[in-house]
Amino acid sequence: MTSPAISVVVPTYNRQALLPRALASVVAQTFRDFELIVVDDGSTDGTRAWVAEHYPEATLVRLERNVGAAAARNVGVERARGAYLAFLDSDDEWSPEFLQRHVEILGEHPDCAFSYCDFRRPRADGTFEEFVSGPARADDDMVRAILFGGVIQSTSLVVVREAAFREVGGFNPILAVCHDRDLYMRILARRPAVRVGACLVTKHRSKDALTADLELWERDAARLLSVFFASDASRRYRGLERAARLAWSHLFFVFAYRTRSVRFMARLSCAMALRYCGFRL
Q: What is the pLDDT of residue 164?
């Protein structure tokens, strides 16, 4: 059997109602040399049966219990046969030329481990707000930007070379929502990346999204920084640890203020007081 150029991995958990939009955007791709792998992460809403009925050509991986997005993506990669890996969140959607544009730019930049693009979010009035993901070309200096909370907001924006992904060991399953940033930093410490200068992804806000849980985000960001600064990849950045932790805490204050989460702001204030007086939580 001939291997496809790209393996598209879509992890999902109890999102049968949202999955049709995401998968429809995959099969609408102008670049056709791909395989679709759907990882049902222990869903109880009929996701498995729906995918089997409507997308029989897809490789459907059923996990008996919910293991989380990072581990589910790793399971999908275990079944992947492509030279490139693309990960689509089950509540997002790609534009039809997403895969084509990424394959083209990675072909033009053989030294780059992955490519990333810009994205947009729908507004209540039916218009869209567009976001730029980062510089035109990213190397290990981009690790600094990620450490301080910026750039590449989702795995849905990225296509990575399978060899580069496996070289760093894949996603870290102990991270619930920051495993993508952790992956990018480990890869960028070895090889550069390149940006597709186009808005190719629509990111939707879902009530069940883990990224909507501020307390989980804050805990996971602290864990991300601890994991990174304990690794060899952090050698040239270790002097930035305290500043990076402070920057993330500031981001969470802003998020909490916008959502009027007074209780979370109070808890975060206590955590910061302890953390920056010499203790680590």
A: 98
φ/ψ of residue 35, rounded to 5: -115, 150
Confirm if 203 and 120 have CB atoms less than 8 A apart.
yes
Q: What is the mean pLDDT of the chain?
A: 87
Tell me how far apart the alpha carbons of residues 226 and 208 are, in angstroms, rounded to a whole number: 27
**pLDDT of 35-93, one tens digit each?**
999 999 999 999 999 999 999 999 999 999 999 999 999 999 999 999 999 999 999 99
152 Cβ contact partners less than 8 Å away, ≥ 6 residues apart: 116, 133, 134, 146, 158, 180, 181, 184
* 187/169 Cα distance (integer angstroms): 10
Please, what is the angle between helix 214-229 and helix 262-275, to 10°? Answer: 20
Share of the chain above pLDDT 70, in %: 83
Which DSSP letter does residue 252 get?
H
HSE toward the beta carbon, residue 3, CA cutoff 13 A: 11
Identify each DSSP E strand in the chain by its residue range.
Answer: 6-12, 34-41, 59-63, 84-87, 92-94, 114-122, 128-131, 137-138, 158-161, 193-203
197: phi then psi, degrees, rounded to nearest 5: -80, 60
Residue owning tokens 């693309």: 86
Spatial separation of the C-alpha atoms in residues 249 and 270, rounded to whole Å: 11
Q: pTM to 2 decimals?
A: 0.87
Q: Which residues of the chain have pLDDT under 50?
A: 210, 273-274, 276-281
pLDDT for res 48: 94
Q: Residue 160: which of 102, 227, 113 has the closest Cα?
A: 113
Q: Read out DSSP for 84-145?
A: EEEE--TTEEE-TTHHHHHHHHHHH-TT-SEEEEEEEEE-TTS-EEEE--S-SEE-TTHHHH
Outline where DSSP puts E strands in 186-265.
Answer: 193-203
